[in-house]
Specification:
It contains 6 helices and 10 strands. It is 30% helix and 21% strand.
Length: 226
């Protein structure tokens, strides 16, 4: 079975201009994902999907393939990664498995890639995604009414504020989505009831969207390497 690493890297970025090719710890942000895929023992091909020629040029120099620029209808602010991946799979029927590597997760390494591949194989499942534990339980969360009154997200009739008894909750961290082509075409999703979770630390789970995320990722990178 062959595994294709797929890195979606749209050119538009409102929070951080040119985010995917801005230098992060000495190299373009996207290169951290390309290099992690290159070092993985399980990845056979590395595809970068972008609508930006500058990103395409840097990805090519980094050793990835760029099979043409992404069409405009898949490059809008509301275009989903799922739609981009499904479009790619429909045009590339020979692919068996695909691993989505968002370039905004630079602290994910080739070790994580190899580990999630091994985890899915051991579980004999079609889908595995990376998660990190939430530092705030959903039982403590509220939404606001139109008058800014607190409305609990969950039923509070059996409320228990004892931290010891709250079940740990996990968040998708966006670093790794490993699925078979058949699963993705069938489910139209990266996740089903049979998806297995690959747990990552909060330090390695920073998903860069804002300048604050950027600074936090740099801080954690230095701490991890020290």
């Amino acid at each position: 079975m062959s595994l294709t690493a797929f890195i979606p890297a749209r050119g538009g970025s409102k929070g951080i201009p040119n985010k995917n090719i801005k230098f992060f710890a000495g190299k373009p942000l996207i290169n951290w994902s390309i290099e992690a895929a290159k070092l993985s023992q399980g990845v056979n091909r590395i595809i970068v999907s972008t609508d930006c020629q500058n990103i395409a040029d840097i990805a090519l120099m980094g050793g990835a393939e760029v099979p043409g620029l992404r069409p405009k209808h898949l490059s809008r602010d509301d275009s989903s990664t799922l739609d981009v991946v499904l479009d790619f799979l429909n045009k590339n029927q020979a692919i068996d498995d695909i691993l989505i590597l968002q370039p905004t997760s630079p602290l994910r390494t080739y070790v994580d890639i190899d580990n999630i591949i091994a985890l899915r194989k051991k579980a004999n499942l079609e889908s595995a995604v990376s998660v990190t534990v939430s530092n705030k339980p959903p039982e403590w969360m509220y939404k606001l009414s139109d008058k800014d009154q607190l409305i609990p997200i969950f039923d509070k009739s059996n409320d228990n504020n004892n931290r010891q008894k709250i079940i740990p909750s996990y968040l998708l961290n966006g670093a790794l989505y490993l699925v078979s082509k058949d699963f993705l075409l069938r489910e139209k999703s990266f996740i089903s009831e049979d998806t297995i979770a690959y747990k990552m630390s909060q330090e390695k789970s920073v998903d860069i969207d804002t300048s604050t995320d950027w600074d936090l990722a740099l801080f954690y990178k230095k701490r991890i390497e020290s």
